[in-house]
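In the previous lecture we treated proteins in isolation. Real proteins rarely work alone, and many bind small molecules. This record shows how such a complex is specified: first the sequence, then the SMILES for magnesium ion.
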Amino acid sequence: MKTDGPGTDGAPNATPDGADRDERAGHADPSATDADEYTFDDLSVVMGTYNEEEAVGTVLDDVERVTDGRAEVVCVDGSTDRTPEIARERGARVVRQEPQGYGVAVREALLAADRPVVVTTDCDDTYPMEQLPEFLDAINRGYDVVSGDRLYWGAAAMPDLNRLGNRAFAALASLLMGERVRDTTTGMRAYRREVVEDIAWTENTGLSAELLIRPLMRGYDVRELPIEYDERAGETKLDPLTGGAAIAKSIVTVCLAERRR
Ligand SMILES: Nc1nc2c(ncn2[C@@H]2O[C@H](COP(=O)(O)OP(=O)(O)OP(=O)(O)O)[C@@H](O)[C@H]2O)c(=O)[nH]1
Ligand SMILES: [Mg+2]
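The predicted 3D structure, ligand included, written as tokens:
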């Protein structure tokens, strides 16, 4: 596992245990030429949206501004408010789906994306679309999954209970995987399309953790990238207690399943 530290030029830093995944999976190639590089034209930004009319306009405007309107945007939407109209007005592809939970929506959104690089986000204005270029850059340097690490900078905007829970989930997953991860439940990641298509995803509320754990345990090149994290606009869709229990269960189930493979 790699993590970018502050003030680096984005070059991968080995974690303290010195583990280096590059050679093992054979993807990361810092000498890749410009011709091989993905641009925003190769990017899909996808999300589940459930009654996010307070945030959707800002989130999609940010994607538009940062990517010069070149990224495809896919919203899998179960809203009863104006979220889908606002998303369509801004050029997003909206797939309507009965609300069945976070993971059902995000899996659908990931698989609906057309482009070779797919970024997930929540539609609640918590994640920094300004950092999309950094995610794309890391994919261009060979990483298969680039995972936004909200806890690196402290995530002051995150409710205390969530921060505690997220640290506990990362500790649990690290223990079960035998590899240190800092943020297993982040909603912002970039994936090479093949990773999304090659793995069968099983979790719902715990999908975010699964999307990190399975690729890591299969030897894909995964790195965590520190990101800023803002206060949420609109109401949370996650109950911290039942949601937290579901995530812990997913982490254990998925880690054990991957160990048995
Ligand atoms: N389509 C769809 N989207 C959903 C559903 N549940 C959650 N979402 C969306 O998935 C994203 C994540 O949900 P959040 O409420 O932000 O969950 P969270 O990030 O764990 O909680 P916060 O920290 O409070 O933001 C948001 O964009 C939601 O609108 C659902 O059942 N259907
Ligand atoms: Mg959220």
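Summary for your notes: Residues 5-26 have pLDDT under 50 and may be disordered. DSSP finds nine helices and eight strands in the chain.
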